[in-house]
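re: ur question from yesterday

yeah so i grabbed the chain u mentioned. its 409 aa long if i counted rite. heres the sequnce exactly as i have it in my notes:
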Amino acid sequence: MQRRFHKAALWGATVAAVAAALGPFSPAHGDPRPGPASRPSPRGMLDAMRRDLGLTAVQVRTRLAQETDAHRAAAAVRRALSTPPAGMWFDRTTGKLVVAVTGAADAQVVRAAGAVPKTVPHSWAALTALVRQITGRAGDGVPGVTGWGVDERANGVVVRIDRTRHTLRTVRFEHSVRAMAARSKIPVTVERTDQTPRQQGGTVVGGERWMPGNDGICSIGFSVTGPGDFQGFLTAGHCTLTADQPAYGKDGSRMGTSNEGGGHSINGHEGDFGLVGVDRPDWTVSANVAGQGGAPVTVTGAQEGLVGMSLCHSGQSSGWHCGEITRVEQTVDYGNTVIEGLSFTNACSAPGDSGGSYVTQPNAPKALGVHSGGGAAGCGAFGGATLTIFQPVGEALEKWNLRLKTGSP
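ran it thru and got these structure tokens back, copy pasting raw so excuse formatting
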């Protein structure tokens, strides 16, 4: 967990340099080159945020300005503190970044960075130590237990249980977690639901359809470039499990190869991310993500997600929907695999969205992550509580020495 804290600071600086270095984007196969009349606009993103977050136009613009300031403060806090804070989140009531600290000296640093300190009893190291104990106790999985992780706002730990799959083993596991929490004096919250997360598998434009061989339908995440002349896109790891599969675009034509060589698909504790190479001459990669009504949103860089921040999701099944990040650094047991380091949102999704794009800030959209999974409830008439999960994009960029394809908003 601490490794992620230090890596995020370095990654933020790298992304800024990459965004400045890369040139204008090229449109995907089958899409016209944007001219003055079709230039990407933030309008669709603002409209979707009004619809999905229940805000007025003025409230959306005010909130986005506040979130921009909060991200600057978060970067300053990371640079100034010698160890990770016990948590950080955006408070939509005050419009400020709140940082959990355990001492007066760190609180002073947080204030100087423009954030609001909140003194708490348990450090990030203590919280993640308890999470590791829970991971060890869970082993290969416990019936009904769908995940666990740090609860930053509560300065504790949360365990998620599907009440419809509850067994005696579930009860024993819950008792053992509460005993561990009592010894450490760290509060634990058990969230009970009737949903079990599942991995939702299913031009290079984020959020649009691609097909891995004959294995189903998934969504494109973000276009990337790499060593040599490599170009391709990031997607979900569970969409790329089979090595050297042909990859087909939304028009059915072949665009490239998924998981070339067998070393470009992660679907386990390390994460849920995969890489597809685009090597057909009639396909090019672009900095675009399909926005409201399919209108392009141009990615300008990458950003780490913070609890409480707004974001929008693009997937080939559900389209374009917005919401808030509700948790970060969570472990999820999908039943077939256990994955660490995932983030939760309340932006709705549907099967087939796997690999799709999560972005923020409509005036200069930043890549946040790729879609991993969600609960049984989808969008529109599906009903039910929303549970949507994404894989932060930084892990894949660093692992395979990739750069986002970026453009100007």
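noticed a couple things. The longest strand covers residues 319-333. also Helices lie at 2-21, 43-53, 57-80, 104-112, 124-138, 168-184, 394-399.
anyway ttyl
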